[in-house]
Amino acid sequence: RGHTVVWHNQVPAWLTSGNYGAPQLSTILQGHITAVMGHYAGQVYAWDVVNEAFNDDGTMRDTIWYDQPGIGFAGGGTQYIERALNWAHAADPSAKLSLNDYN
């Protein structure tokens, strides 16, 4: 099982300190998912694609992906999760995909 492709707790400094707009972040996220999952395509039976997207109270976690209009629609959207799952499926169509959370 692959764990995890998109996680707020493991984002490189160049990404969080950069001044990227939603289209650029979308491209970066798609490229990351495609590279990692494409490399292991057919070798990993299941992936935790998005990890810990929710706070303990059930609200969406404030992350670089969620905060960007056009990716996460801050304040109420989950488009980045939907896109991540779609990109993951494209990268490894036979793998089982999940949204992982601890609570």
Describe the protein's architecture and organization.
There is one protein chain. With 103 residues, this protein is of the alpha/beta class. It has one domain. Helix content is 34%, strand content 17%. The chain has 3 helices and 3 strands, in the order E-H-H-E-H-E. The protein has helices at residues 13-16, 22-39, 79-91; strands spanning 2-7, 46-51, 96-100. It has a 3-stranded parallel sheet with strand order 1-2-3, with helices on one face. Helix 3 (79-91) links the parallel strand 2 and strand 3 (96-100). The longest helix is centred in the N-terminal third of the chain and has 18 residues, at 22-39.
Q: Topology of this structure?
A:
Blueprint: E1 2-7, H1 13-16, H2 22-39, E2 46-51, H3 79-91, E3 96-100
Parallel strand pairs: 1-2, 2-3
Helix pairs in contact: 2-3
Quote the average pLDDT: 89
Number of domains: 1
Oligomeric nature of the chains: single chain
Strand order of the largest sheet: 1-2-3
Radius of gyration, Cα only, in angstroms? 13 Å
Distance between the termini: 19 Å
What is the element string, with H for helices and E for strands?
Answer: EHHEHE
Quick one: biggest sheet?
Answer: 3 strands, parallel
Which class of secondary structure composition applies to the elements?
alpha/beta
The gross shape turns out to be globular
Count up the helices: 3
By DSSP, the count of extended strands is 3
EC number: 3.2.1.8
Family: Belongs to the glycosyl hydrolase 10 (cellulase F) family.
InterPro entries: GH, GH10, GH10_dom
Protein name: endo-1,4-beta-xylanase
